Fold this protein.
Amino acid sequence: MRVLVIEDDAGLAPVVVRGLREAGFAVDLAGDLAEADLKLAVNAYDCVVADRSLPDGDALTLVAALRRAGSRLPVLLLTALDAVADRVAGFEHGADDYLVKPFAFAELNARVRALCRRDQPARLPELRAGDLELDFPRRRVRRAGVLLTLTAKEFAVLEVLMLRAGEVVTRSELIERCWDEHTEPLSNVVDVLIGQLRRRLGPPELIETVRGAGYRLADPADRP
């Protein structure tokens, strides 16, 4: 899940970005509305987290523009403006959620995750591929009944592969869904993480390399 954070506070912005990344999100940062417009024009996001008071205006103008254009992109306003009138204005302009500073990161992560999943197709709370099980609500993975310890990034990549089980997922697609804009498309970050993930999952191997294309999650029972 990819998130755009719009925040100009030099102290808070990196903290928010780091917290969301540690929770497993791919995160891009914009310092003002103009930069946010550029990033929204070239990248696909699952959610926007925006401060209202930005150097070049109020984030409500961006929200209103998105809604006029027919966009349903979820927007969470993260702001110190805590008056009832401010919250009402946020919702009236089309914001989906409103979180007042200071805030708890656990609550921010939970709200962003809920917004990211809101417009996605309904999915089962658990996915299976052979003896591999992925539990979405608890964010747990088991292999042959044994609970595995995965990093947030490993879980994110495995989630994409399991949702597309049997299909080839390209490196570019994995970078688009699980990393941010600063990741070099030609770097080996995906290959390195896949190697780590294979070691975590153990034998028999589930993740196939499709030379020149990407990776595919296969059920060992389907192999000759």
DSSP finds eight helices and 14 strands in the chain. The longest strand covers residues 2-6.
